[in-house]
Amino acid sequence: MAKKSKKNNKYLKPFKNWFVLIFTGFMVWMIFFDANSWLIHHELNSDINALENEKEYYNREIEKDNKAIKKLSSEEGLEKFAREAYYMKRENEEIYIIEYEDSLKVKTNE
């Protein structure tokens, strides 16, 4: 039984020093329990990354919308949009809409 206590003492010997105990307690406190803990910083960094990705997405959408606005600001672009989206026509003009079977939305009874 004396051999087991020597092995245990070998691992516990550093924790008999007050400085090591205080430092260990301080590190545990700072990593897990403090208001500025590592866990909170990790969570905040992941939130920042998510917000930066969202910001990039919205910047791309703004660029795409600006291009669409630029197209619609010309007379030709506005006419093209009105013809394609709202099926508008000029006077004395006929429009035929051709729809293919694979492009139609079919309701299925389930």
TrEMBL record:
Which keywords label this protein?
Answer: Coiled coil, Membrane, Transmembrane, Transmembrane helix
Q: Which organism is it from?
A: Algibacter miyuki
Q: Which residues form a coiled coil?
A: 41-75
Q: Which InterPro entries match?
A: FtsL/DivIC (IPR007060)
The beginning of the lineage is:
Bacteria, Pseudomonadati, Bacteroidota, Flavobacteriia, Flavobacteriales
Q: What is this protein called?
A: Septum formation initiator family protein
Pfam families this protein is in?
A: DivIC (PF04977)
Transmembrane stretches, by residue range? Answer: 20-40
